[in-house]
Amino acid sequence: MQTVPLTEAGARAITVSDATRPAAESSPFVLVVDGPAHHLRWTKGAPAAGILAPFGPFAIASGPRGRVAFAVCDPPTKRLALRLWDGDGSAFADFDAMDVEDCTATSALYWPEKGWLVVASRPGQTRAQLVSEQGQLRWGRGIDIGARSRTGAAAALAQEGDGFVIVQAGPASGVPTEAEHAFAFHYGVDGAPRGQPRDLGTVPKDVPSLEPLPLEQPRNGALRVVLGSRPVDLAP
User: Fold this and answer.
1) How far apart are CA 234 and CA 231, in angstroms?
2) Which of 43, 56, 134, 231 could form a disulfide with 73 if both were Cys (CB 3.0 to 4.6 A apart)?
3) What is the dihedral of CA 131, 209, 150, 163, to 10 degrees?
4) Cβ distance 110 to 61 under 8 Å?
C-alpha cells in the first residue's frame, strides 16, 4: 500500500496492490478518501489502463487543487508515464515523461509550483524527470542522478528549500560483497548536484530495497531518515 496526503486538507490518495506478485500482475487500484471517517471520494480500478502491458512499478503523488498523480514504468515501450486525475477523479492529462531501459522501483513527488518529480531506478542506474505543472519536460528525456544501486533500490524524495533531496541505497565502495549504504543527495531545480552525497551508514539487511527508505520532515527545513530502527537526522 502507498498513501500520500493531498493538497486538500484531510484528503489522502491510496494505492493498494498485491506485493507478492509482479507489478504487472498485482491488479492495483487507487482510491481517494477524506475526513476523519475516511469518506470514499472516488476510485480507479485500473489506473494503468491504456498503458501497454505488462507495466512495471508505480507510485502516486499529490497535485494542485486536489489532483492525484500516478507514475508508472512501462518496460515494453521503455518509457515512464505520468497520469493525472482531477480532484473529482476525472482524467486530466497523460505525459510520456522520460526514457527508461527498465525499472525495479518508481518514486514520485509533487513539488508545489515546480511540478512532479518522478524517479525510476534499476540495477546500476537511477533516472529522474521534472514535469512542470504546465506539462513541460524540464530535463529533456530524463537525467541520471542518485545512487548506482546493485539492486535498483527505490529512491525516497523530499523537497528541501529551493531544491530536493533523494535518499537511496548504493555501494559504499568497489567491494561487491560489502553491504550497501544509504546516501542523501541534494539537487537544484535544474537537476544539478549541490555538494557531495552524504553517507548515512549501512542499510540493514532486513530493509526491503525496492521500497523507499522512510523519509520524514519532522520540522521545517530538517529531514529524518529511518534505517531499520535507527533514525538519522539531516540539517537543512
Assistant:
1) 10
2) 56
3) 30
4) yes
Q: Torsion-angle region of residue 51: left (phi > 0), alpha (psi -120 to 50) or beta?
A: beta
Instruction: Outline where the chain has alpha helix (H).
Output: none
Residue pointed to by grid coordinates 475526513: 35
Could you tell me which of 81, 170, 93 has the C-alpha nearest to residue 118?
81
Contact predicate 83/69, CB 8 Å: yes
151-170 burial, b if ≥16 CB within 10 A, otherwise e? bbbbbbbbbbeebbbbbbbb
Strand segments, DSSP code E, in the chain are: 2-5, 11-16, 29-34, 39-44, 58-62, 68-74, 79-85, 91-99, 105-111, 115-122, 125-131, 143-144, 156-160, 163-170, 181-188, 198-202, 215-216, 223-227, 230-234
Q: What is the per-residue pLDDT across 145-157, written as a single tens digit (0 to 9) for each? A: 999 999 999 999 9
Distance CA 225, CA 230 (A): 8
Residues written for the chain? 236
Could you give the 3-state DSSP secondary structure of residue 225? strand
Helix or strand or coil: residue 128?
strand
Position 176 scores a pLDDT of 60
- What is the residue type of 62? S
Residue recorded with cell 512542470:
132
Q: Model pTM?
A: 0.92
